[in-house]
Design goal:
CATH topology of the largest domain in chain B: Heat Shock Protein 90
Oligomer: heterodimer
Number of domains of chain A: 2
CATH architecture of the largest domain in chain A: 3-Layer(aba) Sandwich
Helix content of chain B: 40-55%
Number of strands of chain B: 15
Strand order of the largest sheet of chain A: 10-7-13-12-14-15
Structural class of chain A: alpha/beta
Radius of gyration of chain A: 22 Å
Number of domains of chain B: 5
Number of strands of chain A: 17
Strand content of chain B: 15-25%
CATH topology of the largest domain in chain A: Dna Topoisomerase Vi A Subunit, Chain: A, domain 2
Largest interface: A-B, 30 and 23 residues
Radius of gyration of chain B: 31 Å
Largest sheet of chain B: 8 strands, mixed
Shape of chain B: globular
């Protein structure tokens, strides 16, 4: 995801240090990726030499070109493609930007370095000629270009040697290796292990573990409660938080934990449209990154709260609720229309939220006691199998 | 001076003119007879009041003689006893008070009708009347007008110019001097000292003046406010002496009184007339009108050179030529005189019943057929027969005088005329400014405006500096497109070729379009409409357009709202021509619109000639002309928009090509130079193709707009 990183994110990304065994494989990937970039540039040159308006053929990354596969229970990218012409006033700038990013990525790959997408923004940003125009004005301009390039080249972000802002932390009864360093996630203190942006097998590997499931928590504050209460120790689970909408690293890691270690995934989020959407992204992928759903989504992920009906079940007083605003209501209405929310239980869930006009944060449960969520709420939910899928 | 025309005409030209002059109002005939034989007007004028006293009792006379009950001194005594007996007023007593009112008395009381409402307006009206006459006279004599218009602030000049301008009302001297044919000595007193005396009222010919009121009214105003007579200097030609007259008006009798008569052995001009008037005026408030009037007169009369001298206070001394005032020169934009306006006979379709009777009475023809044929235009012998075929009494020979005397007969003839199809009146009598000269006038006018600086309102009008005035002529030539482009303020399109109709004036591009309609007729009077517009440049884009109204080349400055011209412009749908237009008002945009009506008889709403009456025939013509101009404007705006867009996108592409070529060069390991060239080649190809397509789309749009406009105007007519 493209959120702006904080200062800590500027540390050098994971380096090849630990990936000694996969070094050759990595070189092969790098060569393949640079070849793709070169091919793109050559095709443009050919078109121009032929006296035609050069273009880039980019798969459309919008709701219109996204479909929900009932069979695979995933949000998938369709076949629509859009031509981005250079000689078109509204597309010219983006066309130019795509090649600036391509060039920067190629250089990164060839020098074997990895950098953040914010860093790339600065690398590619400069003033055009003697105008006051910059190649990029904001990072908001370069981020989508990177995503465009990913889909156009059919190359993953990490293959372009880019990573997003680091966000999210994890603890649990598991030992991993990260860039060659062995890390025991049982001994991570109060802060936990920071989940890097790139978590592919050449960087992260799982070793010994005795976890029974993975619990993804929406926000840091609630995750801290779970860590302090040693919930993961008592219940033999891995707890992860993604600071709101989880970044790619967290989603990819959860995906790997689920598939490689066969751990069920539970999602604990606020009772609001935003929280529901986080669950849905974890479960079937996002519209924007639909082309990566296969590598990130966990269709079996279960929603353990906060449900719209929990306020009665767990006697949460209405004075800790927040009023739904117009934005919430609109979002809820949109979600009612998404095919992956068409299940009756989800319709009921969302409709109840709209009907009551109330939303609840996870912290609202603290009204019943500071550790109510770790000692009563979640254990009861899991015991009663009171979740949604 | 214009009135001089009659005087001048007596020497060589057209005798037709004199014939029409004959049927004059009794008032004139009288005056002319009295003043005519007398050698010196002053001698005649003095005894006159006494001699007339019996016929038309003067105010004093009845007061002394009449024993009537209403007299103030008599009344108190008579009342107590006489109260119940008899009526308070008898027909006899009333009859003693009933007396003729002279035009001058009438206008003394109603001077607002002539444009002398207040001192600031009076200043303008005075100048205007004198300038109108001067221009008329010069044109009739076939001379290129060279005018001097001067306004002197007496208080300021008394202090040797080391003071500020007079605030509010004060004494001013207005001087207007021309190089016209001059005025015959004997005519001078009547022309300047008698209301409704002139050469232009009784004829149908396009001229600035009409009634013969203007200049004498100004003289009367000066006399009323300052007590000073009007001073006229005139010389009719080489070898003739110049004469100076001081003339006063006897308002009770509408007669001139010459108080000073001198022959000058030397005068600096071979021929011409100089008029000096001292009046109470308000320069502070009136100056913007005067400035505007002079500017606009120069605009509508590109063949005239005008030297304009006006007061300047100590604060603006920088520009002053001499203490107290400065002179600006409006050079002539052409040395070609306007086509001479020809005098015509009235067209029968424009004649009203009363007028027809009057004409018939005065006709010298033996029969009605001859009367119709000679008194009117466009009545051939054949069409006269056609008319008479519709009249029951036509069998026998009828004298025109009979028709004049019998209402019924006249009515039958009038109806017959209306029922007969006749050729439209001749239109060669009109003298429009013409497309080319209107453009030249606009260019040289814009040069003046441009040098005025920003603001454009009252204060800015002050800054019409002489420095900016002189290059006007040069710029006029640049209209031909030869002057190298000045370093302009907009570098965006560096070497754009001058577009069709665009004039570059002081670094601003103006689009100028002009339309001269063919002559048309209203009420039997031929008229012709011209419209010119100047778009863009430094006109403010967010304000209502400037509307310059002209009638027979005279700028109309007041009563904009009441004027038929304004009405016609408002009723034109300018949104078709890509200007915004709030409902029921003038359009908004960076534009000045010039509307000129030339006619042998411009129908004004009042004697002060400030607004044109709403004749549907006229307003329709104005609308059509405005639409025609508007279409030219819309084409220009569309073209320019497309050009701007093209230039903008081309520059975008050029910038980006640089970047793309560098990036692709690095990726592929090639030199960016050749890549860039290939891209540029495609750029030209692509944009040219797109431009063609856009042009097509634009033309289509324009055609649709035209059709819409046509449909709308058709609907309006229906």
């Amino acid at each position: 995801m493209s959120a702006r990183p904080d200062a800590s994110a500027k540390r050098t990304g994971p380096r090849e240090r630990g990936g000694i065994p996969s070094r050759r494989a990595k070189d092969a990937i790098a060569r393949k990726t640079t070849a793709k970039i070169e091919k793109l540039a050559e095709s443009v040159l050919k078109t121009v030499a032929g006296g035609k308006n050069p273009f880039l053929d980019i798969p459309v990354r919008s709701l219109a070109n996204v479909s929900w596969s009932e069979k695979r229970r995933l949000v998938e990218l369709g076949n629509q493609r859009q031509k981005r012409y250079f000689f078109n006033v509204s597309m010219a700038k983006k066309f130019m930007q795509t090649f600036l990013v391509s060039e920067a990525c190629k250089e990164l790959i060839e020098s074997g370095k990895t950098t953040s997408i914010r860093d790339l923004y600065y690398v590619a940003k400069h003033t055009i000629g003697d105008t006051r125009q910059n190649t990029f004005e904001e990072q908001d301009e370069s981020d989508p270009i990177i995503e465009d390039l990913e889909v156009t080249l059919d190359a993953l972000r990490e293959e372009l040697h880019l990573f997003a802002a680091r966000k999210g932390s994890m603890v649990g009864p598991i030992t991993i290796t990260d860039s060659g360093d062995t890390i025991d996630l049982r001994r991570m203190g109060s802060g936990g292990w920071a989940v890097p942006s790139i978590v592919e097998a050449n960087v992260i590997n799982f070793r010994r573990h005795e976890a029974r499931y993975v619990l993804l928590i929406e926000k840091d504050a609630v995750w801290t409660r779970f860590n302090e209460d040693k919930y993961w120790k008592r219940n033999q689970c891995i707890i992860v938080q993604g600071g709101g909408q989880p970044p790619r690293g967290v989603r990819r890691l959860v995906h790997r934990l689920h598939h490689e270690l066969e751990l069920p995934v539970y999602v604990l989020v606020d009772n609001d449209p935003w929280g529901f959407y986080i669950y849905s992204v974890m479960k079937q992928g996002s519209i924007n990154l639909a082309y990566e759903s296969m590598r990130m989504a966990v269709p079996d992920a279960r929603f353990v709260g906060l449900s719209s009906f929990d306020k009665d079940k767990y006697e949460i007083p209405s004075n800790v609720s927040i009023k739904m605003d117009d934005g919430d209501n609109n979002r809820a209405k949109q979600m009612l229309a998404y095919p992956w929310f068409k299940k009756a239980q989800w319709q009921r869930e969302i409709q109840e939220m709209v009907r009551s006009g109330q939303k609840f944060e996870l912290e609202a449960l603290s009204r019943r006691g500071i550790s109510f969520i770790t000692e009563e709420y979640l254990p009861k939910k899991l015991k009663d199998r009171d979740w949604l899928e | 001076m214009a009135k001089a025309a009659t005087a001048r005409k007596t020497v060589p030209p057209a005798k037709k003119g004199r014939k029409v002059d004959r049927p004059q109002l009794a008032l004139f005939e009288d005056a002319a007879r009295k003043a005519g034989p007398g050698k010196g007007a002053p001698a005649k004028a003095k005894p006159a009041p006494r001699a007339d006293a019996a016929k038309t009792p003067a105010v004093k006379a009845p007061a002394a003689k009449a024993p009537a009950a209403k007299e103030p001194p008599g009344k108190p005594a008579a009342r107590p006893e006489g109260k119940p007996e008899g009526p308070r007023v008898t027909a006899e007593s009333l009859a003693q008070k009933q007396r003729e009112i002279s035009v001058s008395e009438f206008f003394v009381k109603n001077r607002h009708l002539l444009g002398f409402d207040n001192p600031s307006k009076a200043l303008l009206t005075t100048i205007k009347e004198a300038v109108d006459n001067s221009l008329d006279a010069c044109e009739e004599a076939g001379l290129l007008p060279e005018l001097h218009v001067e306004v002197h602030d007496l208080a300021l000049e008394a202090k040797k110019g080391n003071a500020e301008l007079t605030k509010g009302e004060g004494r001013f001297v207005v001087v207007v001097q021309d190089n016209g044919p001059g005025i015959v000595k004997t005519q001078v007193p009547k022309i300047f000292g008698k209301l409704l005396y002139g050469s232009k009222f009784h004829r149908l010919k396009q001229a600035r003046g009409q009634q013969g009121i203007g200049i004498s009214a100004a003289a009367m105003y000066g006399q009323l406010t300052t007590g000073k007579p009007i001073r006229v200097t005139s010389r009719v030609g080489k070898g003739k002496a110049a004469h100076v007259f001081d003339i006063q008006l006897d308002t009770r009798k509408n007669e001139p009184v010459v108080t000073h008569d001198e022959t000058l052995p030397q005068w600096h001009q071979e021929h011409g007339t100089r008029v000096e008037l001292e009046i109470v005026a308000n320069w502070q408030q009136g100056q913007r009108f005067v400035n505007r009037y002079v500017e606009h007169t120069a605009l509508a009369n590109p063949h005239a050179a005008i030297h304009y001298t006006r007061p300047v206070g100590a604060a603006q001394r920088a520009n002053a030529d001499r203490p107290g005032n400065e002179t600006l020169t409006f050079p002539r934009a052409t040395t070609e005189l306007p086509k001479e306006a020809v005098e015509i006979r009235p067209h029968p379709h424009g004649v009203e019943l009363g007028a027809l009777m009057l004409m018939a009475q005065e006709s010298k023809s033996h029969d009605v057929r001859g009367f119709l044929h000679t008194a009117f235009s466009r009545v051939s012998a054949q069409s006269a027969d056609e008319i008479l075929a519709r009249v029951p009494w036509a069998k026998k020979t009828v004298r025109p005088r009979e028709v004049g005397a019998h209402r019924a007969m006249a009515e039958e003839l009038h109806k017959a005329i209306a029922d007969t199809r006749l050729m439209s009146p001749p239109t060669n009598c009109l003298s429009p400014i013409g497309d080319e000269l209107m453009r030249k006038g606009l260019v040289s006018f814009l040069n003046v405006i441009e040098s005025e600086g920003e603001g454009g309102d009252e204060n800015a009008q002050l800054d019409l500096d002489s420095a900016g005035m002189k290059p006007a002529r040069k710029a006029g030539k640049s209209a031909a497109g030869k002057r190298p482009a000045e370093p302009s303020a907009q570098p965006s399109i560096p070497d754009a070729p001058p577009e069709d109709g665009v004039e570059k004036i002081k670094g601003h591009n103006y689009f100028i379009a002009t339309v001269t309609r063919s002559p048309k007729v209203y009420r039997g009077n031929p008229f012709q409409v011209e419209v010119g517009l100047a778009y863009g440049g430094s006109w403010p884009a967010d304000k209502t357009i400037e509307l310059f109204r002209f009638a027979n080349r005279v700028p109309l400055l007041f009563q904009r709202g009441a004027c038929g011209i304004t009405d016609a412009v408002v009723r034109t749908d300018w949104r078709n021509y890509l200007l915004s237009q709030p409902k029921g008002s003038l359009p908004v945009g960076p534009m000045a619109l010039l509307v000129h009506i030339a006619s042998v008889w411009v129908p004004f709403t009042s004697e002060s000639k400030e607004a044109v009456a709403h004749y549907p025939d006229i307003t329709k013509e104005i609308q059509l002309a405005a639409q025609e101009c508007g279409r030219k404007l819309a084409t220009f705006i569309r073209k320019r928009k497309a050009a701007d867009y093209q230039a903008q996108r081309r520059s975008i592409f050029e910038l980006y090509i640089e970047e793309v070529a560098a990036a692709i060069g690095k990726i592929t390991g090639r030199k960016p130079g050749p890549i860039k060239r290939e891209f540029l080649q495609v750029a030209h190809k692509v944009t040219a193709a797109e431009m063609k397509e856009e042009q097509k789309a634009m033309e289509l749009e324009a055609r649709e707009a035209r059709q819409r406009a046509k449909a709308r105007s058709a609907a309006e007519e229906a």
